[in-house]
């Protein structure tokens, strides 16, 4: 849209104000600035508004708009006068406008910072949350134009509009004047307004997904006239799943007299269906999709599942086709799964919908599964089915042009039929939002993620997403911080899901191991130690043990207060003649089920089984209480089977080794007596073919349970920092350093500039003085005080002590001159080396603290030990900013080399409390000032008492846009 001649080029059409939004009922609308071209739409909209709504807007009867009114409401300068409209199907459904005013209420221009605001919503769309989302967007526009307050006059009877303002979360004042309510809103975002916005976002996006997963009617467009083909396959799967709603088959090539396909009503178009249609599955060639979408939109369809391929996965032309599909669907208020999707499944008894290419619906269960890949979706469905797992919902979103994993996290968050969320992701379209939603969801139910395309460095075909420079290791750490259980393979995802869905969460890392094989018990014991668990010595029941022995041992372990989880190991029973009896799986499973069923609520502990070649055991363990065989009669009373004499088992260690100096202390704030967070048991017991797989799944459950306990009492940013932080002064300094026209590429600060900026946040960097020649070096040392260090600052030698560019503990002039000569002789001329002199710091451990801004993921705080080994091994920990005291404590304890900080091999522990405070100060700096896009403190020498920052580099740049803090909007990739 180009500006009209009446508009100044300086006030050109602001296309960045355009946005697609999800409304309260799950439908979508388009928001954009009103232009002179909208005159016809405005008049049509006004004619459809009731007289009562017009009265509430204009405080008087207002049957029609005059030409002058139309001109006024469609011509804006986009600064002092702005109008926005919400549209569905190309027609206005609501408008909002502001007019800048002075303190007397008269029209004004900047620097006046108040504006009068007014809304009008078509009656048939009231109650959909349109006014609330328009308020968010008009407030964001106003802030961009320097307006800080809204004023509104509302009639007392207009309770709906008063509620919109009251519930927005902004700071406001109300008064009653001249028969109307006068409202003044401070439109700067507050914690309350952000919380309101995100709660509305969750409800709206969850509702939009719910409309796709629980439709009352489904039409399949592209059903072949003969058996076979994608459309006919989906229709067959819907029929076989027992879909509880109405079904329709659609194909424009059906003969006029054809009235059914496989018993389903047949139509030539969606518009020919004489009843409402909630969901349409699109299975036609890509060139026909636009006409199908238009047909669906005109008929009022709520959502589309587009199975059709040949979109963004086919290159630039396909990406354009995909964007056009999304724009067209959203213009009608529809949401889209796909294109190139595999389909959706909902196993709820009230729905029973298999609108996918999967030939069979999974059993109803408590696991929700989202994938971005049809092939991986097939593999996961097959693997979960084979292992006896059951699903609540399954979604394969393909290119996920619209509906994404974020939307399903919103839905699963409060879905009572889903206890575990599984996601296979190949890209993160909005990492900030994903992290926020995952953290909230993980606080109530496990979220397990496999991230594909981790190391390719390229976006997977079909995924048009923002580029993030954050390495995969950092992404993994940030997921862990959000409580996400990240695993490497789909097999590990299934392993973890079985345990999390079917067993309670463990109260701690103590593991009891019991079974009829000493060797398998020891393998399990070793695996526990490798995964950081605390196994008790394995209990060997010997190969003569029968089901009753397993039941008694498991019951005893479950009642033992000194363990938090139990792993049962089993090999086939051996008969009296030495033959292997591998078919007794059902009997053993029944014994284990009975032991688990008898555990008391207070003693609820997860149980996992590791077995080798026991036929039927895994299937019997996966059966619920209502389907598994009971242990009765002879089986219940079976004595241990007699066989060849067994050797006395080698006695395992009497106690699991407990690391002391090599393991850092627990993070500050961690509970010493962890309380159990339990899942509702299903009666199933997960079985694994290898000890390592069972233990890894249990380890993930232990770590997740610990995160849940800690998340229940969140960390905080210590208030004492405020006394030593000069936020306004630092902001002024940053403005001065960037200048009136900042370079978009940013600028690095010099040593003295960086020191001054960091000092504003209580971070002192030890001074350095240049030493262009030996005499200058000596003069610098005298000024700083002996002993000193002599360092090169050339980029290729910086922080590379291993190359000989640093000389320490120079106590006098002779030593300094000698070191200076050695450096220049070995490494080059002073002009190349750029040597500096710095006073010596107390001895300690050299560390590195960094903070960087990623446009997609946000600010990230990092910590590690200084030196090549840590960098080479990637031993660096990360947390999102703003960091809490708990984040800082965990950050320094989560690197593998952390024992060095806590007195490793008899060395003195260093001052980790001072290090935590430094991390919090850096976090606060980049959070308060997004213009600080990079900070590196290296080295930070942490001594037994205090620390010293010896080097610092800071980079400033115009801050990247924070889309996560703006008004609600759907992404447009």
Could you characterize what this model shows?
The chain has 973 residues and is of the alpha/beta class. It is built from 28 helices and 41 strands. Helix 4 (130-144) links the parallel strand 5 and strand 6. The longest helix has 23 residues, at 191-213. It is flat and about 105 Å long.
Task: Report the oligomer.
Answer: single chain
- The overall pLDDT average reads 87
Major sheet summary line? 8 strands, mixed
Strand content: 15-25%
N→C terminal distance: 20 Å
Shape: flat
DSSP E strands, number:
41
> How many DSSP helices?
28
**Order of strands, widest sheet:** 1-2-3-4-5-6-8-7
Using only C-alpha atoms, the radius of gyration works out to 33 Å
Give the % helix: 25-40%
Q: Which regions are unreliable across 5 or more consecutive residues at pLDDT < 50?
A: 1-10, 625-678
Strand-pairing-aware structural class = alpha/beta
Task: Detail the topology: elements first, then pairings.
Elements: E1 19-22, E2 28-33, H1 39-47, H2 51-58, H3 67-74, E3 81-88, E4 91-101, E5 114-121, H4 130-144, E6 149-154, H5 159-166, E7 171-177, E8 180-186, H6 191-213, E9 217-221, H7 230-240, E10 246-250, E11 260-261, E12 264-267, E13 279-282, H8 289-299, E14 303-306, H9 316-331, E15 335-337, E16 343-346, E17 353-356, E18 364-371, H10 374-386, E19 391-396, H11 405-413, E20 420-425, H12 431-442, E21 447-451, H13 472-481, E22 485-487, H14 490-502, E23 510-515, H15 518-530, E24 534-535, E25 539-540, H16 547-559, E26 565-570, E27 573-574, E28 580-581, H17 585-597, E29 607-611, H18 617-622, H19 633-637, E30 687-688, H20 691-711, H21 727-738, E31 747-748, H22 751-759, E32 768-770, H23 774-784, E33 788-792, E34 806-810, H24 813-827, H25 830-833, E35 835-839, E36 845-854, E37 858-865, H26 868-873, E38 876-880, H27 885-893, H28 912-928, E39 932-942, E40 947-949, E41 952-956
Parallel strand pairs: 5-6, 9-10, 9-13, 10-12, 13-14, 14-15, 18-19, 18-20, 20-21, 21-22, 23-24, 23-25, 23-26, 26-29, 29-30
Antiparallel strand pairs: 1-2, 2-3, 3-4, 4-5, 6-8, 7-8, 11-12, 16-17, 16-19, 27-28, 31-41, 32-35, 33-34, 33-35, 36-37, 36-39, 37-38, 39-40, 39-41
């Amino acid at each position: 849209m180009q500006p009209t001649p009446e508009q100044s080029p300086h006030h050109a059409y602001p296309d960045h104000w355009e946005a697609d939004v999800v409304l309260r009922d799950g439908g979508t609308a388009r928001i954009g600035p009103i232009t002179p071209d909208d005159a016809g739409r405005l008049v049509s909209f006004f004619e459809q508004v009731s007289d009562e709504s017009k009265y509430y807007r204009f405080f008087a009867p207002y049957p029609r708009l005059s030409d002058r009114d139309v001109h006024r409401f469609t011509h804006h300068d986009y600064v002092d006068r702005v109008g926005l409209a919400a549209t569905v199907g190309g027609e206005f459904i609501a408008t909002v406008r502001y007019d800048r005013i002075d303190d007397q209420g008269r029209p004004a221009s900047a620097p006046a910072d108040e504006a009068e605001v007014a809304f009008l919503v078509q009656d048939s769309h009231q109650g959909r949350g349109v006014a609330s989302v328009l308020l968010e967007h008009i407030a964001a526009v106003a802030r961009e134009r320097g307006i800080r307050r809204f004023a509104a006059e509302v009639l007392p009877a207009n309770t709906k509009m008063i509620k919109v303002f009251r519930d927005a979360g902004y700071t406001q004042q109300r008064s009653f004047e001249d028969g109307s309510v006068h409202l003044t809103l401070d439109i700067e975002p507050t914690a309350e307004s952000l919380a309101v916005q995100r709660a509305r976002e969750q409800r709206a996006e969850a509702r939009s997904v719910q409309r796709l997963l629980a439709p009352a009617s489904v039409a399949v467009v592209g059903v072949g006239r003969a058996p076979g083909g994608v459309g006919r396959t989906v229709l067959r799967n819907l029929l076989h799943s027992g879909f509880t709603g109405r079904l329709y088959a659609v194909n424009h090539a059906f003969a006029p007299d054809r009235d059914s396909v496989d018993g389903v009503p047949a139509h030539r178009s969606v518009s020919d269906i004489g009843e409402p249609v909630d969901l349409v599955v699109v299975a036609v060639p890509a060139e026909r999709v636009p006409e199908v979408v238009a047909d669906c939109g005109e008929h009022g369809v709520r959502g589309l599942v587009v199975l059709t391929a040949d979109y963004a996965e086919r290159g630039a032309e396909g990406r354009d086709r995909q964007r056009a599909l999304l724009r067209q669907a959203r213009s009608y208020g529809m949401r889209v799964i796909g294109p190139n999707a595999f389909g959706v499944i909902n196993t709820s008894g009230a729905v029973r919908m298999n609108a996918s290419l999967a030939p069979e619906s999974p059993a109803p269960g408590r696991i929700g599964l989202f994938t971005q890949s049809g092939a991986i979706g097939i593999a996961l469905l097959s693997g979960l089915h084979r292992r006896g797992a059951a699903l609540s919902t399954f979604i394969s979103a393909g290119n996920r042009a619209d509906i994404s994993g974020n939307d399903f996290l919103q839905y699963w968050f409060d879905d009572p039929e889903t206890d575990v969320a599984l996601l296979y992701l190949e890209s993160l379209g909005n990492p900030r939002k994903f992290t926020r939603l995952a953290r909230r969801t993980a606080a109530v139910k496990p979220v397990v993620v496999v991230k594909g395309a981790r190391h390719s460095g390229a976006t997977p075909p079909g995924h048009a997403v923002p580029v993030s420079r954050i390495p995969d290791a950092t992404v993994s750490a940030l997921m862990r911080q959000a409580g996400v259980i990240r695993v490497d393979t789909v097999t590990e995802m299934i392993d973890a899901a079985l345990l999390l869905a079917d067993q309670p969460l463990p109260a701690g890392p103590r593991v009891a191991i019991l079974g009829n094989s000493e060797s398998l018990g020891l393998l399990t014991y070793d695996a526990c130690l490798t995964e950081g668990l605390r196994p008790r010595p394995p209990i060997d029941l010997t190969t003569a043990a029968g089901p009753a022995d397993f039941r008694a041992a498991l019951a005893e372990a479950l009642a033992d207060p000194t363990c938090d989880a139990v792993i049962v190991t089993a090999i086939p029973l051996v008969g009296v003649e030495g033959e292997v009896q591998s078919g007794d799986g059902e009997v053993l499973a029944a014994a284990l089920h009975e032991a688990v069923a008898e555990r008391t609520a207070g003693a609820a502990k997860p149980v996992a089984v590791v077995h080798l070649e026991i036929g039927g055991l895994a299937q019997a363990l996966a059966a619920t209480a209502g389907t598994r065989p009971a242990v009765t009669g002879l089986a219940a009373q079976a004595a241990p089977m007699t066989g060849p004499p067994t050797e006395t088992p080698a006695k395992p260690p009497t106690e699991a080794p407990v690391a002391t100096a090599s393991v850092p202390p627990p993070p500050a704030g961690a509970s010493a007596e962890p309380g159990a967070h339990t899942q509702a048991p299903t009666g199933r017991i997960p079985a694994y073919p290898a000890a390592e797989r069972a233990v890894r799944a249990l380890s993930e459950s232990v770590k997740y349970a610990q995160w849940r306990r800690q998340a229940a009492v969140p960390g905080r940013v210590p208030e004492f920092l405020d006394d030593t932080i000069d936020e306004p002064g630092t902001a002024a300094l940053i403005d001065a350093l960037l200048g009136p026209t900042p370079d978009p590429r940013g600028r690095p600060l010099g040593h003295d500039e960086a020191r001054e900026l960091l000092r504003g946040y209580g971070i002192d960097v030890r001074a350095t003085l240049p030493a262009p020649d030996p005499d200058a070096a000596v003069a610098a040392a005298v000024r700083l005080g002996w002993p000193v260090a002599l360092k090169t600052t050339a980029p290729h030698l910086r922080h590379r002590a291993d190359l000989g560019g640093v000389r320490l503990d120079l106590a006098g002039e002779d030593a300094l001159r000698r070191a200076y000569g050695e450096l220049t002789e070995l490494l080059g001329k002073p002009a190349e080396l750029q040597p500096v002199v710095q006073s010596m710091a107390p001895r300690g451990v050299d560390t590195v603290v960094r903070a960087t801004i990623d446009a997609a993921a946000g600010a990230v705080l990092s910590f590690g030990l200084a030196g090549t080994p840590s960098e080479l091994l990637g031993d660096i920990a990360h947390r999102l900013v703003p960091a809490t005291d708990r984040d800082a404590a965990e950050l320094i304890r989560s690197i593998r080399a952390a024992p060095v900080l806590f007195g490793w091999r008899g060395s003195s522990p260093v001052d980790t409390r001072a290090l935590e405070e430094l991390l919090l100060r850096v976090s606060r700096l980049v959070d308060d000032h997004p213009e600080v896009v990079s900070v590196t403190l290296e080295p930070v020498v942490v001594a037994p008492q205090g620390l010293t920052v010896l080097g610092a580099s800071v980079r400033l740049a115009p801050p990247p846009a924070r889309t996560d803090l703006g008004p609600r909007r759907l992404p447009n990739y």
